[in-house]
């Protein structure tokens, strides 16, 4: 039991450490904005070197490694591997690349459980680290349990949701994080009149659109990813690494200068849009296209970082584009426009990740607004069902 408590505590503190380092560099970039290109140049270079020359079993977001362990296809890992992955992750996130910290944080939590736990209870220890890290990262202990069930386990394996140990670990991780950063909601949602025929019809149309288009986005996302991956991993000579570094930096600096909203994980975009701070339709479309392209590039290069929050950001932008576009023909009030932002977050994530329960409960825990839950669940499941009918493969598949 002492080892299990140690897993929960270390996974929670690892989550807090990653968050604090990311926040520290955001402050540095703000205070020394004239030097942010230099900082980013060095940090992206460090990340490329760490990921190319010091190989670990954990790549990218690390979710594939987690799923392999949970399916008993074991790739041994050591504390050295965890530290190396943690350092490359911190360098990657500190460079403001458009990847998120949440999935790698969960991976590190699972890795801590793998290293510290008893071999006789290997899977349970990994799961314990996962839920504690997720709960600490989002302050969302219930969503963490459903993330484990929907994304990391085969559907139908409901035993994890019955585990008192995992529920306790998730809430303890939440309590540890909350004791340091506070127990406050991530954003406020204005009053929305849901029982409105116009809003329901538009929401059904929007969730149908997201579900169908997500299948094609998913298909071409992985086709382009394979192409990028092949081009960037054909040779590992130092000169090729330097050339790749320079190409990525030129593109990234161009985006950083002309479209600063397109860098970073994207949580600020989600919160800003939910607060009703909309750009024009053209600017919103441009930000979406640039963020999607950069996410694909850095994810294909196996930079340490995840797609969890970046998908939330892309979903919020899809919702904003829809509400801004439709408001030119149909009158929408501020609350209804914000609803489509939330609906974009929920439906896009549910369709891409096959996790409608996770995202619906996560938005509930982040907003503390129980009225949202039944509507988010219905439309998220609708988008998820349509996407799965058209393309059954999960995002994190073998």
Task: Report on the architecture of this protein.
- With 398 residues, this protein is an all-alpha fold.
- It folds into 2 domains: 180 residues, Clc chloride channel (Orthogonal Bundle); 194 residues, Orthogonal Bundle (Clc chloride channel), CATH 1.10.3080.10.
- Helix content is 73%, strand content 0%.
- The protein has 16 helices and no strands.
- Helix 14 packs across helix 16.
- The longest helix has 37 residues.
- The radius of gyration is 20 Å and the shape is globular.
- The two termini are 33 Å apart.
- The model has no long low-confidence stretch (mean pLDDT 82).
Q: What's the story with the biggest beta sheet?
A: none
Overall tally of domains: 2
CATH homolog superfamily of the largest domain: Clc chloride channel
CATH class of the largest domain: Mainly Alpha
* CATH level-two architecture of the largest domain: Orthogonal Bundle
Please give the alpha-carbon distance between the first and last residues: 33 Å
SSE ordering: HHHHHHHHHHHHHHHH
The helical percent reads: over 70%
As residue ranges, the low-confidence spans are: none
Strand segment tally = 0
- Class by SSE composition: mainly alpha
Radius of gyration: 20 Å
Brief write-up:
By secondary structure, the protein is mainly α. Helix content is 73%, strand content 0%. Helix 9 (197-233) crosses helix 14 (334-353) and helix 15 packs antiparallel against helix 16.
């Amino acid at each position: 039991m002492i080892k299990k408590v140690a897993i929960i505590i270390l996974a929670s503190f690892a989550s807090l450490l990653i968050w604090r380092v990311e926040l520290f560099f955001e402050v540095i970039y703000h205070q020394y904005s004239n030097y942010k290109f230099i900082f980013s140049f060095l940090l992206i270079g460090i990340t490329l070197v760490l990921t190319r020359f010091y190989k670990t079993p954990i790549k990218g977001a690390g979710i594939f490694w987690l799923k392999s362990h949970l399916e008993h296809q074991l790739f041994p890992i050591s504390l050295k591997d965890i530290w190396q992955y943690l350092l490359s992750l911190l360098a990657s996130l500190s460079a403001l690349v458009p990847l998120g910290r949440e999935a790698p944080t969960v991976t590190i939590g699972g890795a801590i459980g793998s290293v510290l736990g008893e071999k006789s209870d290997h899977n349970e220890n990994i799961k314990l680290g996962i839920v504690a890290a997720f709960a600490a990262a989002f302050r969302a202990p219930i969503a963490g349990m459903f993330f484990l069930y929907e994304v990391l386990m085969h559907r139908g394996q409901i035993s994890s949701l019955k585990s008192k140990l995992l529920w306790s670990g998730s809430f303890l991780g939440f309590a540890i994080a909350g004791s340091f950063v506070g127990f406050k909601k991530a954003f406020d949602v204005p009053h929305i009149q849901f029982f409105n025929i116009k809003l329901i019809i538009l929401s059904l149309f929007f969730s149908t659109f997201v579900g169908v288009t997500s299948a094609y986005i998913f298909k071409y996302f992985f086709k382009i990813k394979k192409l990028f991956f092949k081009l960037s991993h054909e040779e590992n000579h130092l000169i090729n690494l330097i050339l790749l570094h320079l190409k990525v930096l030129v593109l990234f600096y161009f985006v950083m200068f002309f479209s600063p909203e397109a860098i970073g994980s994207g949580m600020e975009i989600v919160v800003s849009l939910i607060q009703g701070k909309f750009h024009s339709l053209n600017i919103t479309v441009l930000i979406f296209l640039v963020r999607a392209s950069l996410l694909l590039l850095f994810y294909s290069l196996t930079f340490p970082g995840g797609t969890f929050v970046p998908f939330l950001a892309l979903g919020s932008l899809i919702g904003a584009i829809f509400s801004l576009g439709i408001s030119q023909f149909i009158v929408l009030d501020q609350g209804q426009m914000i609803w489509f932002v939330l609906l974009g977050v929920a439906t896009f994530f549910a369709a891409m990740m096959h996790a409608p329960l996770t995202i619906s409960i996560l938005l509930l825990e982040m907003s503390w607004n129980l009225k949202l839950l039944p509507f988010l669940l219905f439309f998220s499941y609708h988008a998820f069902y349509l996407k799965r009918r058209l393309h059954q493969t999960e995002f994190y598949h073998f």
